[in-house]
Here is the input.
Amino acid sequence: MNWAAVSAIAELIAAVAILITLVYLAFQIRQAKEQITLAGQRHRADAARHVLSSVSDSPYLAPILAKLGGLPWGDYGLDEAQDNVRLFMWCHAWMRTEEMNFRMSSPVQRATQDQLLRGWLSVPWAAQFWTQNRAIYDADFADRMDTLLDEVGLAEDKTAELFAERK
Here is the structure.
């Protein structure tokens, strides 16, 4: 074997190594981008939960917000308007948490989450909250919740039945 053949083989091996390195780097960049996106979504969800929890837990903010007209708090059949505000804020904080869980969970883990959400959506006021507020959530999570709501239907209360099916 002459030096020209050895050189050609070495160049071929180097080219393959560079190609493998580039594919690996592209994969790493894509993974890093997904992690950055997920971190941003997590931060947004954490910030929303913090603000919403401060309203639902505060003896001062909920009555003030309840007096403001034109805001879509919802009417959940509670005696006090401020209680509707508190429930709205709590539901929204919980849905932001579930939206983040949706992003971070594997399909196997999502099955348990789906069971919990089906139970929640089987309660009329919870289904009402979701249908009135679905537009404020990311499209893929909203689509998943709509699918779960369709599975449950708008029956009066299937909660016990749903949890009895759990394996």
